[in-house]
Amino acid sequence: MKDPIEGQGVLKCSGCGIELQVSNPDLPGYVPEQSLGNNPVVCRRCFRIKNYNEASSVTVDQDEFLRLLSQIGGKKALVIHIVDLFDFDGSLISGLQRFVGNNPVILAVNKIDLLPKVTNWNKVINWVQKQCKEQGLKTEEIILCSAKKNQGFDRLLDAVAERRGSRDVYVVGATNVGKSTLINRLIRDYSDLEQELTVSRYPGTTLDMVSIPLDDGHFIIDTPGIVYPWRYSEMVDRKDLGAIMPENPLKPMVYQLNEGQTLFFGGMARFDFIQGERQSFTCFVSSRLKIHRTKLEKADSLFEEHAGTLLSPPNTEDLGKLPEWTRHEIRVPKGAKLDLFISGLGWVKVNSDQGALTAIHAPKGVKVVSRPCLI
Questions:
Q1: GO molecular function terms here (predicted)?
Q2: Which of 14, 239, 288, 321 has a CB 3.0–4.6 Å from the CB of 40, allowing a cystine?
């Protein structure tokens, strides 16, 4: 079927100025086909902001997002960077500092409700500070929050009020980190939506940010969510997202392992304890992702025979849609307590300081790193 926008010239949203399209609801500029006859025509995101005081998330690829970020350094801006604590290393925008220049950055660390209630939050903030320092990111303030539980948002709103002055507020983040929830809260607290949405187009890109007017004449700038391909959540079929993305507090699973033992996380990833003294490892993954223990020598044949059935998700049908696994060998030095992190899936905490030789197997492209223990 021919795209109904073709033949009509370029149609643009009267709210934000983005070029309209009817093909993909997840991309910027989407408008339902039946709404093309409206006058004026607005994209779905602007429609939801205008009529429901809600922002809906749209996404762009990394190159497009970096082109958008490159404009912020020349603006007078307060930047709110929202990250996912469960997938911190996968959702932090690497190199953000060089894009925002001297503009202040507030780091909103979302999904704290997923960590155990006994978590020492001061230690979590210290851990986040160290991770930001390693990435060269300077933050005015780090705020732990939960969009789901509405925790920490009052402090975040206070920080915005204290620091924005005459600045516009830019909200940046990856997909599925809670950015829309934050935008919606800012709209409710600051924005007079009787005003019309205004165009905020930057030269050199086909994508527009959405400017939401504030009561004092400044704007909240809603940027699209960046799609990071190294996050497991971007690879799996939508029906498997619920299995790997936890909704409730994590229940750490502790395993005492001898060398030569393997843990499978469904059919999504595998952890090998190759060499070292008997020791414990704690797994922080969704409770809906079943963990299977086996001998290292049997691991390859177990996966070959049972991937998609016993070792699921993904099921057999979706297994072939994922890239082949890559092996990441990680040596844990004596005295070091590390997390072995799989972006979008969780992490394995090495509890002992005896040292160990380990390996993580995950689909090619998924980010796997070792890091200081979060908990």
A1: GTP binding
A2: 14
Residue 200 predicted with pLDDT over 90: no
Q: Is residue 1 part of a domain?
A: no
Please write the tens of the pLDDT for every residue from 285-298.
999 999 999 999 99
Residue where a domain terminates, one of 226, 257, 283 = 226
Residue 269: partners with Cβ closer than 8 Å, 6 or more residues away: 325, 342, 345, 360, 361, 362, 366
Tell me 354's DSSP state.
S
**Integer Cα distance of 167 and 153 in angstroms:** 20
Q: Is residue 38 part of a domain?
A: no
Residues 282 and 182 in one domain: no
Residues 291 and 358 in one domain: yes
CA distance 260 to 22: 53
Q: How confident is the model at residue 153 (pLDDT cuts 50, 70, 90)?
A: confident
d(CA 350, CA 336) in angstroms, rounded, equals 9
Q: Which two tokens stand for residue 64?
A: 């497009």
